[in-house]
Amino acid sequence: MPGDFVGELNFSGPIEGRARYDRHDVSKTNVNFQPHKLRIHDARPICSELSLDHEGFALFDHPTPSADPEWIKANEQAYNDAVGALIKEVTGAALVVSQINGLKLRFADAANREGASPPAALVHADYTRPYAAIWRKWEGDLRGEDYSRFPRFCIFQTWRSLTPPPVDNTLVFCDASTIDDSRLIVFDSVVGGEEDKPANKWESDFSLWDEHQRWYYFSNLMPDELIVFKGHDSDESRYAQSLHSAIDLPIVPAAKPRSSVESRFFAFFD
């Protein structure tokens, strides 16, 4: 169903000590969610105006050979190669590489699927500035590459709905130009037990409630459309990191549980 709607997002409340969101051992999680209702604007009417260097997110036509999650899982490299080629084309990057283990399938009905990941229903950005550089080094070390030779690098995240509309849940984005960094809270994101192992623990950002933020979604997403959004930019004049979150859509007849695929990329610029 197209158009704006009012939805509920989980922002951060006050947190005692170092904030931690631990998906490996939930008993160590100390984040304090504060839900707020707000207007979510339909970005369809302004698609042509959106910029990765300003709002931090954009929508592209990008057909996939199959919207079957099992096909994507079995053909991860081919899928990432196709998405990486699009990122290189639209950004002018000299080199684009997929993040190791950066592809993830998510399902709104994950509770009914063994080993499945649910949507991430919290207002967050995945990479702080310091940890984006650390992650770049992790990736380079794993590949035997020194990516610091490039003067600029970005992390681009991509998201595709694999379920045709209507669906029950989607991803929403905050216009990066409306984000006040003083309203962000650094937290440790933990997904593995060996916390000194690359990609098991890193820094991310939560957001406190901020009425000045402006939030968007894309109505009626089809599997042949791809959202690209910026996770980091080492060029601070074009930083534009977009907060994002999963959100439940207004109930409509015949809405299906959302399935989606996300994949992450490093882009390097001469």
Explain what you see.
With 270 residues, this protein is mainly beta. 14% of the residues lie in helices and 35% in strands. Strands 4, 5, 6, 8, 13 and 15 form a six-stranded antiparallel sheet that branches. A five-stranded mixed sheet has the order 1-3-12-9-14, with no helix packed on it. Strands 2-10-11-7 form a four-stranded mixed sheet, with helices on one face. It is globular. The model has no long low-confidence stretch (mean pLDDT 94).
Name some characteristics of this structure.
270 residues, mainly beta, six-stranded antiparallel sheet, five-stranded mixed sheet, globular
Q: Order of SSEs, N→C?
A: EEEEHHEEEHEEEEEEEE
Structural class, by secondary structure, is mainly beta
Span between termini: 43 Å
- Global geometry: globular
Summed over residues and divided by their number, the pLDDT gives a mean of 94
Strand content: 35-45%
Number of helices: 3
Q: Which blocks of ≥5 consecutive residues have pLDDT under 50?
A: none
Helical content class? 10-25%
Radius of gyration (CA) equals: 18 Å
Number of strands: 15
| Biggest sheet overview | 6 strands, antiparallel
